[in-house]
Design a protein that fits this description.
This protein is an alpha+beta fold. A hairpin with a 2-residue loop joins strand 4 and strand 5. The longest helix is centred in the N-terminal third of the chain and has 37 residues. The chain starts with a helix and ends with a strand.
Length: 190
């Protein structure tokens, strides 16, 4: 190898060493920055102490109640269930579910079409949209599952009746539990 070629090889090796050193430093800086950002994601309030948000729910069920807005039943078995969630003392969301079980599978589509129509007629009379309150109707192999859901702060007095709470003047845990218990539902905490 000539002196010129040896010199080029030495310069190439020196250049590679500099690039390797550069990338080691650059990657170290990136790793330190990402680590600092990940660790810095926590927040602490020193003046108020740690805050705990209490989330609880109230589940009420009945194995023989029929949703009062349905016009077709003929089910062999039914289940009505409501779930109300609370953050602290405030109601956060509410859902209602009616399950109608049929041994005669031919009654399931009829139940869906008649009850779906009855609900939308009722919604229409109250100035609401078709399938309002996130209403869903599921035709299952053994029955019909109907459900509605809403964030509580989006409900008006007119819509409360669809969650069977239209006769309340106050909406707190005890009043809601009492209202559902008076309707024959068994309630428990979750």
């Amino acid at each position: 190898m000539t002196d010129d070629a040896e010199e080029k090889v030495k310069k190439g090796i020196e250049s590679n060493k500099r690039w390797i050193a550069f990338w080691i430093v650059a990657l170290s800086v990136i790793i330190v920055f990402v680590g600092w950002a990940a660790i810095g994601q926590h927040r602490s309030d020193t003046d108020e102490g740690p805050k705990t948000t209490q989330v609880k729910s109230l589940t009420c069920k009945s194995d023989d109640s029929l949703y009062p807005f349905f016009t077709f039943d003929d089910s062999d078995r039914r289940e009505l269930k409501t779930i109300v969630t609370f953050i602290g003392d405030d109601v956060r969301s509410i859902s209602l579910q009616q399950m109608l079980y049929y041994t005669d599978a031919g009654l399931i589509p009829k139940s869906e079409s008649e009850n779906h129509a009855a609900m939308n007629n009722s919604f229409s009379r109250d100035g609401m949209a078709v399938d309002d309150l996130d209403a869903t109707y599921a035709v299952l192999s053994n029955g019909l599952k109907f459900s509605i859901y809403s964030k509580f702060d989006k409900l008006n007095d007119n819509e409360m009746k669809y969650f069977l709470l239209d006769n309340l003047d106050e909406y707190d845990y005890n009043k809601i539990k009492e209202a559902y218990t008076d309707l024959g539902l068994n309630c428990g905490n979750n």
